[in-house]
Design a protein that fits this description.
alpha/beta; Rossmann fold
């Protein structure tokens, strides 16, 4: 079982696009996959056009004793894919987690109750107890970064926090380069130079997600890029990225 947490404390880097498209493609490759929406904004849930039922959200899943099977909803036309949806109610989890013993390990314990091939966790852009739970549970941490001049700000602090949370746990972290616009040559070169040490250390995935308006349109249509534009650059890139992740 692999648990992949998609995190970055910076918003707008494409975390949710990565989470839903990778999860969908994994399921298409006959991998039993469960996406856990751990962001109160519920963008991943909306990405699959899923409305969380009352009492059946990732908030209750995290804080109650019920099994994953009580919360995971099947995605239409994708029999190997389920989602534990989120809602704004998840924002109250921070308050409710304060009184829980070993609160940073709750998600890890919940995920051990049932077997799937892959868990994908879409995290909020804040380093809350929810994100700490995701980091603790993950054996692979995926960090999307974009080709912007401030894209890597705070990355060193994030790595420090991740290492503190994981302590002596074995884990892999990979950076995925997202939304590359080939026309912005100088900015692209700047980002590649900033990532050079991570590339040498094999912490950067080889696949680059090119900027593709189809990805944004798919989000608006509540579809994955594979359903909306299966022959697009975005679909090709996310397919290659998913295949690379499987072999990490």
């Amino acid at each position: 079982m692999s648990v992949i947490a998609v995190i970055n404390q910076k918003g707008g880097v494409g975390k949710t696009a990565c989470a839903i498209n990778i999860a969908y493609q994994l399921s298409q490759m006959n991998k039993i996959t469960c996406l856990i929406d751990l962001d109160p904004s519920a963008n991943a849930s909306r990405g699959f056009n899923i409305l969380a039922e009352a009492g059946k959200t990732s908030y209750e899943f995290l804080l109650k004793k019920d099994s994953l099977l009580d919360y995971a909803q099947h995605i239409e036309n994708s029999p190997n894919l389920t989602i534990v949806p989120s809602s704004i109610r998840l924002a109250m989890a921070q308050r409710d987690l304060n009184n829980k013993p070993f609160r940073e390990t709750l998600l890890a314990k919940k995920l051990s109750d049932v077997y799937v091939d892959y868990f994908m966790i879409d995290c909020s852009p804040t380093l809350s107890d929810l994100t700490i739970n995701a980091i603790y549970a993950a054996n692979l941490i995926l960090i999307p970064v974009t080709y912007e001049d401030d894209a890597l700000e705070g990355l060193a602090d994030l790595f420090k926090v991740i290492n503190e949370i994981k302590d002596n746990q074995k884990f892999i972290f990979k950076i995925v380069r997202n939304q590359k616009d080939a026309r912005k040559t100088k900015t692209n070169e700047y980002i590649e130079n900033r990532l050079a040490d991570f590339i040498v250390q094999d912490h950067v995935l080889k696949t680059i997600i090119r900027q593709d308006e189809n990805i944004n349109q798919a989000k608006i249509e509540r579809k994955t890029i594979f359903e909306y534009a299966p022959n697009s650059n975005g679909a090709i890139d996310f397919k290659n990225l998913t295949e690379e992740l499987i072999n990490v």
